[in-house]
Amino acid sequence: MQAFGRLLDVLDELRQKCPWDKKQTNESLRPNTIEETFELADAIMRGDTHDMMKELGDVLMHTCFYAMIAREQGLYDIADVLNTEADKLIFRHPHVYQAPTNLPPRGRLEPEKTVLDRYRLADPSIYNILKDFSSANRKNCTEAESLVWELLRDKRMGVRFRRQHVIGDFIVDFVSLTNQLVIEIDGGYHYTPEQQQADQMRTRILTELGFREIRFTNEEVMADPIGVSATIRGIIESDRIDGLQSLPFGGRLEGADQVLKNWEQIKLKEKDGNKTVLSGVPASLPSLIKAYRIQDKARNVGFDWEKKEDVWKKVREELDELEAELAKEDKERSTEELGDFLFSVINAARLYHLNPENALEHTNQKFIRRFSYIEEHSIRAGRPLTEMTLEEMDQLWNEAKLLTPNS
User: Fold this and answer.
1) Taking a C-beta distance cutoff of 8 angstroms, is the pair 4, 57 a contact?
2) pLDDT, mean over the chain
């Protein structure tokens, strides 16, 4: 329950603060949900249990996201989703739930709230204790820590540092959250075997959270503060050159497009994430969605048209090539050119922020409704469709368009 509550808290905060999450709707999420489902299916077929765990999380996140949107609209929330499913399972299993005493308790899920943001990651039960310790540490810092703070404070290194800051279940001496850089100043007690072992474990955990750690001894700071300053500044400058300023825990991102580009860079840096830009596209994904995702991922690393209007020249070029091959009645080449043409149309849709999967599905549904009108008329008239002329069906089709012009 605590873990589930933590996920809901994260989603609530992203909905409020992330430009991409703010703009999502049920319809805009739909293609992503299809993709996540196929990624889970791929992991199951490969028997990759670790990937299954990750993809189950993505599917669960989408479930929670839809429920969050519904809650905003006053329709239902995640508790209603869970309770409805539980009620359905109970009703369908009378061989298990035969007596009222067997029924699990029903009611709204009210997990203990856990706060997660870029700055607070600790277990809520110990967070306040850690905060008290960090406050005391700031008041009783060592001479070496005071000297380093003078080097770091007020963005003197070009980025903001915090001191005696809680990360996970630890208090770090100094941290730049935008660069995910932790700086530790070690006194004499760090030299004991027990403390060195504890420090190694802490470093490993911080690394798993995405942080890097650099350590100086009190003696190093006092003897060569200029050298310490140069070392820290060199790391920050290297980050700036390598484009690592926008990492998971911190950094300001303006606009949904920038969030998506940053998302792709982060995924490439994950320990068990995508090894190449396009490796995250599921092989079994429906071709239309796959084409869109391939193009979108390439765009996020800068491979795209400079002006969206330029894409139409490519669309017309591909259509001309398709017509030329069709005229030759070369099926193999025509199939290849048809694929190129469809790919270019999907590319145009992406550039104009239109989702081709949703657009095509709307058209599918529109065709079904209008064709059903023809079919219903034929049934009322007692004439099978096969006995109707094309002109008669066209007339009924136009009637259907007039009756429902926008659907």
Assistant:
1) no
2) 79
